[in-house]
Amino acid sequence: MINELAKANLRLLATAIAVAILIFGSTESRAADVRQLEATMEAMQAQLKDLQRQINEAKAQAATAKASSRNGGGGDSLDLKVKWKGAPELSSEDGKFKMKVRGRLNVDYNAIDQDERITGDPDVNAAELRRARLGVEGVVFYDYVYKFEMDFAGDSATIKDAYVEYTGLPFDIRAGHFKAYNSLEELMSANYITFMEKAAFVEAFNLDRLIGTGLSFDRKHWTAAAGVFATAPESDQGTFFQDGTTFSARLTAAPINENRRVLHLGASVRHRDAAGDPRDGVTDPLFRYRARGADLHLADRFVATPQIGEADTFWGLEGAVVLGSFSLQSEYVQDRVETASALASADPTYSGWYADASWFLTGESRPYKDGVFGRVKVKNPVYRGSGGWGAWQVAGRYDVVDLSDKSAAIPGCTECGEQKTWLIGVNWYLNDYMRLMLNANQSKIEGGVNHGAEITGLGMRAQVDW
């Protein structure tokens, strides 16, 4: 349409030039041609009016097409926005709907000297897919958030996060399979923890995702959450609540919560009961407590209890400080176990704690939000032509888990002991979504049949998430 209008303009201009030549080109015939000139001018005015009408119609059509596209075009046009956050994030123009593919891949190598002379367990020299997850997350009608993720590592498929959450109230309501509200180390994503594995007490005291429902408040300087759950992860579940009940709650405060300056304090509690009735005529196992040597996933367990607990009560204290590129983090926890009366004459109290320090050599800082630490923003990422060095972080941790209390009164508690572990780590963040990790760890075992054993390990990881 616009090209046709331009051609019409050119035709009119040529006509005007011809008329001018006609007027000034021959003085003798000027008077005779006045009537012809008037007729020509009238014709030009008519063409100009018709041209203006066509221009107005074209403008109206363009405005109608633009409005139709903005409003969905009666369902025929695409109402879509696309962002890139490690993977495509699709959303409607009005923000009513969102959807993002999520996932992660951890490729690990462990070399572990398990002190076979004492423990009887051979050395480990192996690689594994520590995590291989794929899922989706998104928003439906502004206020309904969902997440679903499967882990395909270890030649099996396991459901991890699988929940729906309503965020349209001053507090959030969540239902599904998700982490119970305990421990800073446990609630942080494994994508963002400083070391390859979480502190030993996380595994020892069975802090995990559970099926349940919870309420949570997230504010800049404090958070509060509480929920009721079943007592086992989805992969071990039967009917909801058939396998006992778990209550969990956590409260945090961040009196200082600024960019590169954070003071975090927190406390959490959990109480759980084992199954009240057998499932399918088979007695469900009682709770047991154990941890892997050297804080590495492929190591064997050298401190462990039998299945002794029919109920337990866990509580923990947590604290963290961020000062620019430097960070401190620590937790102390206890778990008081109510043993089955037929198995033990006393109820032990087990404990664990850790303290770690880390420093970014390249100036980055650990970001903090909603009571946990999140994704590090790399100042100079590594990619083709960037010349960046990424982010370099060095860290150290001392980690203790003690399962020795009242071991003499518990039959079969031959590995009930204490494990103390030193860890040194170096992390290279290539960009916001990729990092390489190196951990050198050593555990010393005190008590039980593995007393005096020293478990030394080296761990390496290549990690990407999206």
Number of domains: 2
Tally of alpha and pi helices: 5
Mean pLDDT: 88
How far is the N terminus from the C terminus? 46 Å
> Which structural category do the helix and sheet elements fall into?
alpha+beta
Side-by-side strand order of the widest sheet: 3-4-5-6-7-8-9-10-11-14-15-16-19-20-21-22
Text of the CATH class of the largest domain? Mainly Beta
Report the strand count. Answer: 22
Low-confidence spans: pLDDT under 50, at least 5 residues? 72-76, 277-282
Main beta-sheet annotation: 16 strands, antiparallel, barrel
Q: What is the helix fraction of residues, given as a range?
A: 10-25%
Strand content of the residues, in percent?
A: over 45%
**Order of H and E elements:** HHEEEHEEEEHHEEEEEEEEEEEEEEE
Within the CATH hierarchy, at the fold level, what is the topology of the largest domain? Porin
Query: How does CATH name the architecture of the largest domain?
Result: Beta Barrel
Integer-rounded radius of gyration: 35 Å
Name of the CATH homologous superfamily of the largest domain = Porin
Judging from the principal axes of the Cα atoms, what is the shape? elongated
Please tell me about this protein's structure.
The chain has 2 domains: 2-75; 96-465, Porin. Helices cover 16% and strands 46% of the residues. It is built from 5 helices and 22 strands. The chain has a 16-stranded antiparallel barrel. Strands 12-13 form a two-stranded antiparallel ribbon. Helix 1 packs antiparallel against helix 2. The protein is elongated, with a radius of gyration of 35 Å. It starts with a helix and ends with a strand.
